[in-house]
Design goal:
Blueprint: H1 8-23, E1 28-34, H2 42-52, E2 63-69, E3 74-79, H3 81-84, H4 91-103, H5 108-126, E4 141-143
Parallel strand pairs: 1-2, 1-4
Antiparallel strand pairs: 2-3
Helix pairs in contact: 1-5, 4-5
Length: about 140
């Protein structure tokens, strides 16, 4: 059964943040949401989801996954090899801090939208949009 913690407006805001972020980059951003983290470590679960969504198949290995297990209050931000090799060392940690500051007050959609915007800025810097770029992954939110 699919569970969605977002209102329709919040969901639109998140999907629009993904679309805006991807307009200027060849990178791909996905958001995956589920009530419970299937294992104790959200990073390990994010790695499983990353593979399940086929995110490792992007041409430049520049996919970014925002994973949220909202009932368990766990989340992770995971970048593929291509983007991970280029962003500053503190990028993932500071992005998680940004998300955490919004999630702590229950503002999941706002936190995700801002985190997506931030990831998009990094992707744009290192993987600019090319005229022959195709949207390799869906922009919608996936739910379990």
């Amino acid at each position: 059964m699919q569970t969605n913690p977002f209102t329709p407006d919040e969901q639109k805001r998140i999907v629009e943040a993904i679309r805006q972020a991807e307009k200027a980059t060849s990178g791909e951003i996905r958001v995956h949401v589920e009530p419970h983290c299937a294992n104790a470590d959200p990073i390990q679960r994010a790695i499983e989801v990353f593979a399940h969504l086929g995110m490792h198949q992007t041409k430049e290995q520049n996919g970014v996954l925002f994973y949220l297990a909202y009932t368990d209050r766990k989340f992770a931000v995971l970048g593929d090899k291509g983007i991970d090799a280029k962003v500053p060392n503190d990028f993932w940690g500071s992005t998680k801090d940004l998300l955490r500051s919004h999630f702590a007050t229950g503002k999941y959609a706002e936190g995700l939208s801002l985190g997506i915007e931030r990831a998009g800025q990094q992707l744009k810097q290192y993987f600019p949009y090319a005229s022959d770029d195709t949207n390799e992954l869906a922009d919608d939110i996936s739910f379990d």
